Amino acid sequence: MDARNCRMCGKMFNYISGRQICSNCKKDLEEKFAEVKEYVREHKDASIAEVSEELSVPVKQIKDWIREERLQFSAATGEICCENCGKPITTGKFCDNCRKKMVNKLDNAYQKPQVEIKRDRKTNPKMRFLDN
User: Fold this and answer.
1) Which of 20, 42, 70, 113 sits a CA distance of 20 to 30 A from 127?
2) Residue 106's pLDDT band (cuts 50, 70, 90)
3) For position 129, what pLDDT does the model report?
4) CA 83, CA 94: separation in Å to the nearest integer?
């Protein structure tokens, strides 16, 4: 295991994987996430800045939750944009069109090898049955 300082509170903790924050800060962050999620449900037209101000959560953290697809706003407000084309989106990193294009490119990148089966008619001209 690796001992590191928490990026939020500065305390030492045993780092295993993921974000470099201690278990107490992770718990606090999850509680804040639950509050934000509930607020967004109740106030469907709220902007990221409004949610941030109302619940005292950094805008960057809210945008991270949106990029992780943990939060989704009801309308594309222009605050979060597709990383590929720049079109406003409500959740994730890419718009639907760019996501579909990437999937198609990945599908086309892998081509199954075509195996040709050659049958020699001279050595095996027809089907044979074995009698017991």
Assistant:
1) 113
2) confident
3) 61
4) 6
Q: Are 110 and 127 in contact (CB under 8 A)?
A: no
- Residue with tokens 């449900």, as numbered in its chain: 41
Q: Are 14 and 3 in contact (CB under 8 A)?
A: yes
Q: At what angle do helices 59-67 and 48-55 cross, to 10 degrees?
A: 120
- CA angle centred on 127, ends 125 and 132, rounded to 5°: 135
Environment class of residue 80 by beta-carbon count within 10 Å: exposed (0-12), middle (13-18) or buried (19+)? buried
Radius of gyration in angstroms for the set of CA atoms belonging to the chain, rounded to a whole number: 27
Per residue, the 3-state secondary structure of the chain, as one string, reads CEEEECCCCCCEEEECCCCCCCHHHHHHHHHHHHHHHHHHHHCCCCCHHHHHHHHCCCHHHHHHHHHCCCCCCCCCCCCCECCCCCCECCCCCCCHHHHHHHHHHHHHHCCCCCCCCCCCCCCCCCCCCCCC
Q: Tokens at residue 31, please?
A: 């509680």
